[in-house]
Amino acid sequence: MFPLNRRETTQLVRAALEEDGAFDDITTIATVVSDRRAHCRLVARKAGVIAGLPLAVEAFRQLNPRVTVRVDGEDGRKVAPGSVFVVLSGSARGLLSAERVALNFLQRLSGIATLTAKFVAAVHGTGAKILDTRKTTPGWRSLEKYAVRAGGGTNHRMDLSTAILIKDNHLRALDGDLELAIERTRELAPRGTKVEVECDRIAQVRAAVEAGADIVLLDNMEVDEIRRCVELVNGRAIVEASGGINLTNVRAIAKTGVDWISVGALTHSAPSLDLALDFT
Q1: Contact 130, 270 (CB under 8 A)
Q2: Are residues 131 and 257 in the same domain?
Q3: Active site residue 159
Q4: What is the pLDDT of residues 82-134, one digit of tens each?
Q5: Known catalytic residue: 198?
Q6: Considering just the CA atoms, what is the radius of gyration of the chain in Å?
Q7: Average pLDDT over residues 261-276
Q8: Does 225 participate in catalysis according to the annotation?
């Protein structure tokens, strides 16, 4: 489900259009007569997965309330090079002035969805889930995590208040006392909250499981070490692998038997999908 309500969508798009000077587009005003109408279409230049359509459509509508829009499919749709996925008809000025903002939303979010889909395809059949992280663009987290879902991925915790993840710096603040850290979280966190512990060596994994961790995160471990940790945990906790994961090694990691694979690159390094607005 798209994460923004109507008011939030309107405000976000309005701010983006104002940032771009779209309501005072001097080039378009100077070159295109006010009553000129045009037809155009959004086209995929490369294969990928589309995300962000509600934002793009809103951009065109704010500059052209009478625009006619035909959307072929929803977010999560796979497109081939040359695919037309939106057709528009309306004021030429409005279409031209909204073009860049609409594409900025679409290309960024579709890039995340596309990269996510590649990781999901790479681990198909292994049982491992591809998760995102909190490494998101400030202010865009709900949108970027939505794009991960559009690409077939799964969201990790949305923010610091929704789940517990005890990391190395938390343990350093407690002089490395893992058992005490877990005990405190059990006492203070809402009932039913899962406790996850980041581990960078096998001894830590053993200690975390024995202390009752629900999830162990294997941080920057080699494939053989991950496999040994999965065997050690033996179903007593969810096992998550993270750190240094890419499309080259993700399947080998998935085949170790881990439950989750979290990939920060889904949101912090996804290249924008090549899309264009072509006037016909």
Answers
A1: no
A2: yes
A3: no
A4: 999 999 999 999 999 999 999 999 999 999 999 999 999 999 999 999 999 99
A5: yes
A6: 23
A7: 98
A8: no
Q: Which of 219, 227, 251, 255 is catalytic?
A: 219
Q: Evaluate whether 227 touches 210 at the Cβ level (below 8 Å).
A: no
| Residues 133 and 258 placed together within one structural domain of the fold | yes
Q: Based on the domain organization, do 144 and 231 belong to the same domain? A: yes
In a domain, 1, yes or no: no
- Say which CATH number the domain at 86 has: 3.90.1170.20
What does the pLDDT look like over 26-64, one tens digit per residue?
999 999 999 999 999 999 999 999 999 999 999 999 999
Q: Copy the structure tokens of residue 34.
A: 């006010």
Do 36 and 131 share a domain, yes or no? no
Exactly one of 100, 184, 227, 255 is catalytic; name it: 100
Q: Is the pTM of this model over 0.85?
A: yes
Q: Is the pLDDT of residue 176 over 90?
A: no
In this structure, the answer to whether residues 99 and 157 fall within a common structural domain is no
Catalytic residue chosen out of the listed positions 14, 46, 134, 135: 135
Q: Where does the chain have alpha helices with state H?
A: 6-19, 26-31, 53-63, 92-122, 141-150, 168-173, 178-188, 202-210, 223-233, 250-254, 265-268
What's the number of domains the chain is made of? 2
Domain range for 171 is 121-268
Residue 17 lies in a domain: yes
